[in-house]
Amino acid sequence: MQEKRIKLNSVADIKMFVRAAENCPFEIDVCYNHVCVDGKSFLGLMGMDLNQILRVQYDSEGENAEFEKVLAKFAAQTHDAA
Fold this sequence. Notes:
Elements: E1 2-6, H1 11-22, E2 28-32, E3 35-38, H2 42-46, E4 54-58, H3 65-73
Antiparallel strand pairs: 1-4, 2-3, 2-4
Helix pairs in contact: 1-3
């Protein structure tokens, strides 16, 4: 299972993310706190708090270059103070 952190800032960002996710043969979950939605669901992602950093969890057995590019585009910069 791979996990990346992303920040989606607009409806256009959500559309781009969902388009890339729909082309993936594996499941993609997008989570914030204890809420997880299907990463291929536009409506599910619209219900997420876009002010927060989202966790994307997926288990790809092969490479999906387009999806990886989209994840890199929306990669969130986190500053964890521990």
